[in-house]
Structure formats: C-alpha cells, structure tokens
Amino acid sequence: MQFDEADNLCKKTLEIHREHSAPASLEEAADRRLMALICEAKGDYESALEHLVLASMAMIANGQDNEVAAIDVSIGNIYLSLSRFDEAVFSYQKALTVFKSSKGDNHPSVASVFVRLADLYYKTGKLRESRSYCESALRIYAKPVPGTTAEEIASGMTEISAIYESFNEPEEALKLLQKAMKLLEDKPGQQSTIAGIEARMGVMFYMVGRYEEARHSFESAVAKLRASGERKSAFFGVVLNQMGLACVQLFKIDEAAELFEEAREILEQECGPCHQDTLGVYSNLAATYDALGRVEDAIEILEYVLKLREEKLGTANPDFDDEKKRLAELLKEAGRSRNKKAKSLENLIDPNSKRTKKEASKKWSAFGFRN
C-alpha cells in the first residue's frame, strides 16, 4: 500500500522502456497497466486513463484482442470513477463483445463484465437493469465452464453481494458471501481473502440484528488477520471496531472496550488521529467507558476529540455538536466544567485499570456508538 514508492519505481521502469525497448512493446504495455493501477489507487484517474489508453494501443498493435478487452474493462472502471457513465458503458460493451466471441457466452470474463455493468446501472439509478445483469452473472457462476477457478467465482459473488447490499437485501448478500467463502475455504493462500469475506458477513449479520453471528464472523476474521501478519493494517483496526460494536449489542462491555482500545492504537498509527475511522473509535471508546462507569476516561477522550475538531477539522461537522452535547452531559454528571487543555490521548487510557461487575452493570449512557 506504499503507492508513492510504487509510483516512483514504475516511473523508472517506464523510463527504461523508453530508452531500451521497442516502441509499443508488450512489456511496456504490462508496466503501463501497473502504473494505471497505482494512479487509480492514488485517485489520479486522468493519469490512469492515459496509461491504459497507451497500453491498449500497444496491445492492438500486437494483435492481443483479449488483452485489449481486459484493458477496456479497466478503462470502463476509470470512467465509472469519473462519473462518465456513457463512456464507461461503451468500454464495457466493447469488452463484452470480444469476450463473448473469443471465450463464449458463459465464460467468467463475460460474467465479470456483467458485474461491472450491474454496478454502473445501480449507480445511475437503473435498478432493473442492474438486477438483470447481476442475475445473468450469477447464472454463469452457477454453471461454470471448464477451467473456471474457484477464486474467479468467489470474487464475482463477493462483488454481486455488495450490489445486493446496496439494494438493501442483506439476506441475499449474506447467501452469496457464504457461497464465496465455501468455495475458498480449502484453497491455499486465501486466508486474507476469507477474512475479508467474514468481515463483510459480520457487517451483514450486524445489519439484520444477528449480533452473536456477527461477533463470531468478526472473531474468525480477526484470528485469520492476526495469523497472516495483517494485525497492524487499517483494515484490521476497522474490523476490531466492528467486532466491538457487536459486543456492545451483546452487552459484552469489557470485551468491547478491549477491542476499541486495540482498534484505537492501530488506527492512530495507520490513519492518524483526525481520520474519520479513528474518530469513530474514540467516540465508541468514550461511550464504552461511560457504560463501565469510567466517566473521567470518557470525558477526557471527548475533550481530546473536540479539541481535534476545533483546531484541525473545523466545527461544521454534525458530529461536533453531538460530541459537545455528550461531553456536557458527562461533565454535569461529574460535577465539573470542560477542560480546554486536553491531554494527549496516550495519557488518557490506563490499559491496566480494573473494572468491576458493579461498574459493568451501570446503566447505558444516552449517547450512541459509531459504525
């Protein structure tokens, strides 16, 4: 995820091609596709588009029709990101024509373009067309042609599940995620992918109020991410936060506090204190401390968050008023006024503090939790 470093290395590679490779070589085209991927990840869509067009021209010159079609899909994705929907449809349809003629109507490449079109039509409000493309893709995945990998089918089903989630059909989305996970569970090197699917399933279970199943899915995802060395990633921090929210719903308040504390530590390191995910964890941690009777800890976190908003983020965000109100309620309960000189957050939380059952049974505070 070190995109600036990747960008520098790829630029050097393209300079070498410019000096030593034949014009429009396949090797240069491959590296331009990589550069486009890096630019897209950095949000530089115009540059990504430029590299993809150059790569496409090289592939055309070398008669690589299927590669040209694959690049057309990538170009469609960039147009979609730029909200240039008509051009995106044109690129996807071009790719679809080539894939159908060269690979057959039931090839997973065809299904993958159907999924992209389903996503596009959902985003443009054409829900009937979106659903139709989802169903067409699922028919292909249900009867895969020989040579189709489990990874291809699982990836497609995961993408379609996200569209069904957007349709506000979490149960259908869950079924697809469960099928995707089943396809991958005995495949080597797929633990991180499975963990991602389990985390998505946890969110789905949470949305439909199945909190015990949500907690179980998050717990399984967390274990896999720890084992695969991703315990310091921002994604891991977000999953810990989501698992904490499931624990809150199950009144496992101590466990929730520990999860929020670990999430806070990771997200501060990976995203910084001003990132929206980090701010959400601060808010959840304050609410949990209040529920445990640790009012002073809750107050100091909220003072720190308000200070961040006032000094670095601005006070126009609706969360600012909500947090200010929360703090006022806690200060009233504690019988004191706001301390404008908030301490560094590192000094706010004592990980060794003892929590009693009496504290844990304290009535829930009026302020809520953030997803």
UniProtKB/TrEMBL annotation:
The segments carrying the TPR repeats are: 69-102, 154-187, 279-312
Q: Which UniProt keywords apply?
A: TPR repeat
What residue spans carry the region label Disordered? 335-371
> Which InterPro entries does the entry link to?
TPR-like_helical_dom_sf (IPR011990), TPR_rpt (IPR019734)
Q: Which SUPFAM superfamilies match?
A: TPR-like
In this entry, which stretches build a coiled coil? Answer: none
Q: What is this protein called?
A: Kinesin light chain
What organism does the UniProt record list as the source?
Answer: Escallonia rubra
